[in-house]
Amino acid sequence: MLSKNSGIGLIEVVVALLVLAIGFLLSGNMQLKGLREHRLSSQYSQAVMIADDIMDRMLNNREGVEAGFYDGIRTGAVTRPGCADTGCDASELAQLDLFEWSSHLVNVSGRNDFIPALPVSENGTSATASVSNPDVDGVYTISVDWTRQDDNEVNETLSVKFTQ
Question: Backbone phi, then psi, for 105, in 5-degree steps?
Fold first, then answer.
């Protein structure tokens, strides 16, 4: 007599392979999402460090802050003041701070190996950062703007309130 239920049938093998394939695809998708979120959180952390950098610089140059040398500054293609090696007064120190702050986002030194801390948009626009003029309570707003690159480019802004 022959047994009707001997061995594994082809249908069971195909179903098992289908379940494994779906599991691997979902696992791969989860890994891609995790990498994307890691990249985005890394960009946000960089923006926080850039904002923190200028806050520290302003705290170290209170005379320059009180004189208004940091009011309305914006990162960009700026030149390094000549006082960097000889000693700076409050105004020159604010210019040096702006130069070094800009170096996180823009190639101010002309180096060939420059890599900005935040991504450049597809049209080549660099991330920017600015310090607003203080409001009536002496509160500054530090903003860092960059383009997040996912499936679509999305503009991101980190704003931090700061007072001396």
Answer: -120, -30
